[in-house]
Write a structure and sequence with these properties.
Helix content: 25-40%
Strand order of the largest sheet: 3-2-1-9-10-19
Number of strands: 19
Shape: flat
Number of helices: 12
Structural class: alpha+beta
Length: 350
């Protein structure tokens, strides 16, 4: 009775709580939050200063009294208090009422995506921060399943689908059929690791230290894994950093070949993991996958030529849907609207 009453005065939310970004969908409204999953905190009293873009702007620029924290590492909550603060902030913001709307109580029912293979302890951590943030009912769904739903695939069909989601902290690879994950793999290799690889490459080659934000900008603007004959120009980018030998500022230029050298090993590891999943897949499902192809999603999927190199290495065509970074959150929203399907696949811990 109380749960139904609270449901009337609050919004149902789908949440993709990632290592780099948080995406929140509101039932029947779509994406309502698309922000970096980061917060700035006063070190002394743990008071929240800012979240999202405002907090990210402080990264590498804040004084010693302020800490900028990404509370999720490789898909796992590493800072419960900060993760709870971020989630609570957005839940309260979404339930703020205008003069035209009826009063709202920030006690939502939520569907939260979690990485494939998440342990019971890690699931309980997600439930804990959601409860403390004000959620009244918490449903957990494995990320590849939510991604498949967001793609519009028939997850209850016997036809196999291969989903590859390269996010900020993890790469999720899964074969989905008959309402479940037949074969799956979760790699702790993704966008953040690529940024770190670029930072390391620049340090080793140029003796220059650049920030993570600069590395991310290089990755998304310059990286190009298309065949050399298909590249339209020799695009490069200038980066500003500090020379670790002199301690003085230095400007360097990075080309596509530099970025390819920095990221090549990580891309190879992702390709090898996809091959392993395919090798472990029953032959009848492999036939389906060859027909339908790989569905490549996540923010990193936007790197130019990445789909081409994955297709070349796996011998399977690759589909690149639009708005790939928000697809998992859209899948969570679909589950909010389909209670029967939610009951079938949910991993509910209350």
């Amino acid at each position: 009775m109380l749960n139904s009453l609270l449901g009337y005065f609050s919004y149902d939310l789908g949440i993709d709580l990632g290592s780099s970004n948080i995406y929140i969908t509101q039932k029947d409204k779509g994406i309502v939050v698309n922000q970096p999953c980061v917060a700035s905190i006063v070190k002394k009293n743990k008071q929240l200063i800012a979240v999202g873009d405002k907090a990210k702007e402080m990264l590498g620029k804040s004084p010693d009294t302020i800490e900028v924290i990404y509370p999720i590492k490789n898909g796992v909550i590493s800072d419960l208090d900060t993760a709870e603060k971020i989630l609570q902030h957005y839940i309260k913001e979404l339930h703020k009422t205008s003069k035209e709307s009826s009063p709202k109580i920030p006690r939502p029912k939520v569907v939260i995506s979690i990485p494939y293979g998440t342990t019971e302890v890690e699931r309980r951590a997600v439930v804990k921060i959601a409860k403390n943030a004000g959620c009244r009912q918490i449903n957990l769904v494995e990320s590849p399943f939510a991604t498949a739903l967001g793609l519009g695939l028939n997850v209850m069909s016997s036809k196999g689908n291969l989903v590859v989601n390269i996010g900020g902290g993890t790469t999720e690879i899964a074969i989905i059929s008959l309402g479940g994950i037949v074969v799956g793999k979760s790699l702790k290799i993704a966008g953040i690791n690529m940024d770190e690889a670029i930072v390391s490459y620049v340090k080793n080659r140029f003796s220059v230290l650049i920030g993570a934000s600069s590395a991310e900008n290089v990755k998304m603007r310059v990286a190009d894994f298309n065949l050399k004959s298909e590249r339209t120009n020799s695009e490069s980018i200038t980066c500003r950093g500090r020379n670790i030998k002199t301690g003085l500022p230095q400007v360097i230029t990075l080309s596509k070949l530099d970025v390819e050298a920095a990221l090549g090993e990580l891309i190879d590891q992702i390709n090898e993991a996809i091959k392993v999943v395919v090798e472990e897949t029953p032959p009848d499902l492999v036939s389906d996958i060859i027909e339908s192809g790989i569905y490549l999603v996540g923010g990193v999927s936007k790197i130019r030529g990445l789909s081409s190199v994955i297709s070349l290495e796996t011998k399977i065509k690759v589909n690149l849907p639009k708005d790939s970074e928000i697809i998992t959150a859209k899948g969570c929203e679909i589950l909010l609207n389909d209670t029967e399907l939610l009951k079938t696949i949910e991993k509910k811990v209350n």
